[in-house]
Amino acid sequence: MLRKIALNSASQYVATAVGMAVTFFLTPFLVARLGRESMGLQTLASQALSFIGLFTGAMGLSYTRAATVRYAKGEYEEMNAVIGAGFWLSVVTGVLFLAGAWVMALYPEVLFGIRGGLVRDASWVIVISGLTSALLTMTGPWCAPLQLAQSAYWQSLGSIVATVVAAVVVVAGFRMGEPGVVFWVAVTNGVRVVVVFLMQIPAARRVVPQFRMVLSLENIVARSRSLMRLGVWSFFGGLGYLFYYATDSMLISNLDELGPGRIIDYNLGQRWDPIIRMLVAGFAGSLTPALTGMVARGEGERLKGALVSSTRYAVAGGLLPCVLLLVLAEPFITAWVGAGFAASSVPVLRIILVGTAVSLPTMIGYETLVALGKIGEAVISTLVGGICNVVLAVVLVKYFGWGLEGIALACVLTMGLRNLIYTPLLLIRHSGVGAARYYVEGVMRPMAGAVVLAGLVILIRMVVVPTSLAGVMGCFAVGTLLYVPVLWLVTFRPEDKALALRLWARTTERWRRPA
Hints:
Elements: H1 2-52, H2 54-72, H3 76-106, H4 108-112, H5 118-143, H6 145-148, H7 153-176, H8 181-207, H9 220-245, H10 248-254, H11 263-270, H12 272-297, H13 300-327, H14 329-337, H15 339-372, H16 376-398, H17 403-431, H18 435-463, H19 469-491, H20 494-512
Helix pairs in contact: 1-5, 1-7, 1-11, 1-12, 2-3, 2-9, 2-12, 3-5, 3-9, 5-8, 7-8, 9-16, 11-15, 12-13, 12-15, 13-15, 13-18, 13-19, 14-15, 15-17, 16-17, 18-19
């Protein structure tokens, strides 16, 4: 199990790194060719569609968890029946998703304040993105065995292939002509669908030989009701999440004080938050089947140990990019997309990263609550906090005149109250882990390491003033290297060091082994 968790996590880190690299180099390329407003359309469409895609994601979590429990117990017939029920739910929700996207595409002026020549492009971007999401929703159950067998590295590999191929095609297309934002969105989404059919679905059938999806409608109503219990909670949790992370572009677009042209300024500062979250979520997601299996087998003490150690690793990993970007925000933005964006994007980047840092522990905690089937209270707090975020953002922009910084600050303030206090206490109560053990071993040790790293990077920043992209990347590389001894001396416990040495020994043993 440990080997698979390490493999899944490593593959997710590689996929995230590839995505970051492609985003990093592709963004200034596209900004120069599409302009501020056209660049903002993709973000706007993605965030708007995420609201109507809530139920599809909730159902995916529901049938995956239910099937994982059956798989852990060796109940393969029921596992196939659960996934079959999930397929029919996915078909229904996928069709509804596509219908909602079509309605949005008909009225971009009313819903998002889009005007002039952007209206047609906005409609096409929404339709293409909506169709892709609907197809991926319907194919989700066919990829479910990758999660059951803890073989999510296939999904990471597919993500890498889709990202790289799409980027190559997009760059080639813009080099040969001026195709526009619709071409960019169509290529990116089209490649994702092709990779799912050619790579991920065939891999899913191989990793779980017992997988034979049951498409019979017998007992479908009873099974669907069972799946929808968790799905409903997941739906409301997703709604709260979107009130945090998917309303910024719509608020910016519709507020007279800002407007569609400011979406890209905010996005350049905000976009590193979801990338860092993906890094941690990849590790957290690789743990979910294992945690669910522990719950199914009644391994309470083992679950507590996994929760604390996993929280420590997740926080330590997520804080590295947070610290580096916080300290080097201004030279990074300036060297990346130009000084014209620094004044507006740098404050957003710094404010948002504070919220990212305080959220890292709860990402593992939420997966643990999912494994325990105890997400109701967490969902309610997310929904309440998300609504407060939207209200506070409007107040800070319209009545205090804080602009983009006000939208970022509203998210961090409402998120901090939830993630620093409420969710950890909820997790401690349901998992049974001691508060001192969770906070001291799981959270405070990596936080202490991050403080040491921040001091070292600030010293580097005082000595070296990077003015080029290469200089900024050099500072990132030095900071990353310095983090290794910080982890060993400050963050890691003795058992972490022993585990690291065992993994290193296994790796080097394979290298030394004769062919």
